[in-house]
Structures are given as C-alpha cells and as structure tokens.
Design goal:
By secondary structure, this protein is of the alpha/beta class. The protein is 32% helix and 13% strand. It has 13 helices and 10 strands.
Length: 405
C-alpha cells in the first residue's frame, strides 16, 4: 500500500495551504528501543531501506527547495525541525555542517526557526554549545518518573534511559542553555499515575509539556481500549457514564491539577489548544482543530512524506511519491495525500460534522481515524475520551467565569 493508493482527495476539496514546517530526518536510526515507537514498531518499515544519515547534498537540496517554497508563497518565516530516529546520532561535526548549510541557504531568503527533538541520552555540553551557537531550540522526550519512563524507553540492551535523560535536562535547565529549552514530550501510559507523572515532569521546570496519546487506529486500537474496533455511528455523548474512557480519566486529573494551580507552573499544549477552541479561537495543533496541516517530512534519502504518525496505518501510508531532487514542496502540497490532510471540516466524516465539538477536536489526529473499510472518514479512535475531556474542560472554564470575585 502506498500513499497514492489511499484514494484521491474528495471532489471539491479546497486547495492546499503553503507548507511552513519542514521536518528533516537527519538520522534514521535510534539508540533507544521504545516499544511504542511509530517508526520502528509500526506497519511502515521503510526506515530499513533508507540511509542512516542524511547526506549534506540532500540537506543542500532540501534547503534550496525550502527557500524556493518560501519565495514562491512569500512566507515571512518557516520552521525546520531536526528529527530522527535520534538526530544527535549524526554527531557534532555533521550536525555543525548541516546547520551551516541551512543558514547559508535560508538566511538570505526567509527567517527560519530551527528546533530539534531528541530522546536526550546524548545531549551534553558539546551539543548544547553547538545548538546555542545556531539558535536551535530543543524538545526532549520524558515519560515521567524513572519507573514510568523506563517502562518503555530503554536502550536496546534493556538498560534504563531515565538517568541519562535527567542529566541532560539538568544541563538544559542551566541559565546558559535555558533559552533553548522548548519543553517535554510525554506519551500517556495508563499504567502510570497521572498526577504523579505530571509532577515528575514539573521537576525539570519545562516551559511546556506536550502530552501525546499512544498511536492507534480502529484496526489496531491503542492500549487499554482494544475493544474499539468499529467507529461510532453517532456523535459521542460527552456526559455518558457507561462509556469506558480510560484516557479521559487519565487526562482529567492532570488538567485539574494544572488548571487549579495558584500560579502557572508550565504550559500544557493539549489543554491550551483545546481551551482555545472552546473559546472560539484557532486551534494550532496537528492533533486537534481544523487549521490546515502545514508540515512535510523529508526522509534521510530526500523523499517527501506526510506526517510520521501515518506509519501506524499501513506500509507506505505517508508516501507522496516525491523527493527533493526531482520535486518542489508545492508539488508535495498539491498531492492527494497532503490535500486530504489540509481539507479541514470538508475532510471529516458525517459523525464528526454532526458533533458539537468539531471545531475543537477537529476529528482528532488524522492517523487515529483510520479504518480499513472507510479510510479516514471516521472519528478518532479516542473520540469518546476526547469528548469527555473537552466537556470537563468546558465545565471547569464556565465555573471559573461565573465564580464571584
């Protein structure tokens, strides 16, 4: 199965918006063996056939294509995300040369922000000095306490990774590097206590926390909801008490702990974006809302793909059939694969269109909607959880608004 075999964009699908986020897979391997990883343990195994490291020639070509796209669409700024695998496995020398190329090719054309997502195990003062010199922001994956984190995020030989990540985060929190620290990425695990997990993340004073739901589809449901094998035929009742909604029950105590804090301890992207939607404002997150998707992936061999999360759907599901050597980003933007992702409410199934929370959750993450029989025209496999969470947040926000001063 390839991305082109998922079916064409529906007739009347609106034209795509320019791409503004360019995720470069600068290293296609990882030094951890996280059992929930969507790259190495999901349906799509294309990483096995790709170069280990993105060559500098590929970086040059990608940078030139980004510059061309920015000029063509008169973009004031773009974001380049360095990703993997584990991007720091590329080494300081290669990373330094890569960043030099990006500045050389992009600085004269467009303002670009550069960020890096890492598991933190290799992050030391040498890398931090390099990233500081090039103004590269850093996000680190951390799943909570040592026990919570090491349940899934271990080295290939079984060794725990939390001690190395914690040491890296202490370095990143140093005043010299603090400005680089964007935040923490935490995958929700129902086996972990939610508030304990949140407070374990707070120990590193992150500017922001991104809680991520484990990837799953209606064919392969996420942990704890294995009975969810058929999409609902009607919008969920967020007040239903009979629903089994373990992810809502995990996230609601975290929301209350965050929302009721006497001062803001950190930002939580999931909650802030959903609150924005409840207030009628834009939701700027891939997993929620109706804002058009504007990210493209450049694999280590220069091929262009849609979002990584589609790797859980089927082999080749993220594929566009294009690459930076033969094709522009505007061509990628115009593929059926990308147009489906950018179609907003038009691309939702009828159940989502009839739901009161459509503008807030946007149907959930695109990959989480997939069912072999109906494609992506379904609510998220987390539909009931999201509805319960959003309804709870709405109640709490209303209580806050009517509370006497």
């Amino acid at each position: 199965m390839t991305g082109r075999e998922l079916g064409p964009a529906e007739p009347g699908c609106p034209p795509g918006v320019p791409l503004r986020q360019f995720l470069l897979k600068i290293h296609s391997r990882c030094n951890l063996s996280c059992d929930y990883c969507y790259v190495y343990f999901a349906a799509d195994q294309s990483w096995r056939e790709r170069p280990v490291v993105m060559s500098l020639d590929t970086v040059r070509r990608a940078a030139d294509r980004i510059a061309d796209h920015a000029l063509e669409h008169r973009l004031p700024s773009v974001r380049v995300i360095l990703h993997g695998g584990e991007p720091l496995l590329a080494g300081r020398k290669h990373l330094s040369e890569l960043l030099g190329i990006l500045h050389e090719r992009l600085d004269p054309v467009v303002r670009f922000h550069c960020s890096l997502q890492t598991n933190g195990t290799l992050l030391d003062t040498g890398f931090l000095e390099l990233l500081r010199d090039h103004r590269v922001e850093v996000s680190v994956s951390l799943d909570g306490s040592p026990a919570a984190h090491d349940r899934h995020r271990r080295f290939g030989d079984g060794r725990p990774s939390h001690p190395r990540v914690a040491a890296a985060l202490r370095l990143l929190g140093h005043p010299r590097y603090r400005d680089l620290f964007v935040g923490l990425l935490c995958v929700v695990d129902l086996a972990n206590d939610p508030v304990e997990t949140y407070e374990a993340l707070l120990e590193f004073a992150p500017p922001r926390i991104d809680f991520l739901l484990p990837h799953g589809t209606w064919q392969h449901p996420p942990p704890g909801v294995e009975d969810r094998t058929a999409p609902p035929r009607d919008p969920p009742d967020p007040e239903a008490r009979h629903e089994r909604i373990p992810y809502a029950h995990w996230l609601i105590p975290v929301f209350d702990r965050w929302f009721d804090a006497p001062r803001q301890e950190t930002r939580v992207r999931m909650f802030e974006e959903l609150m924005s939607g409840l207030l009628g404002d834009p939701v700027n997150a891939e997993a929620f809302g109706l804002t058009p998707h504007d990210l493209v992936v450049v694999e280590s061999d220069g091929t262009l793909e849609d979002s990584d999360s589609l790797k859980v759907v089927a082999p080749g599901a993220p594929a566009t059939g294009l690459d930076v050597f033969r094709n522009s980003f505007s061509e990628a933007q115009s593929t059926d694969t990308m147009r489906r992702r950018q179609s907003g409410a038009h691309g939702l199934g009828q159940v989502c269109r009839d739901c009161a929370f459509t503008a807030v959750c946007g149907g959930g993450l695109y990959s989480h909607r997939h069912h072999p029989a109906t494609g992506f025209a379904n609510p998220s496999v987390y539909c009931a959880d999201l509805a319960a969470l959003i309804a709870h947040m709405r109640r709490r926000m209303n209580e806050r608004l009517v509370r006497p001063l």
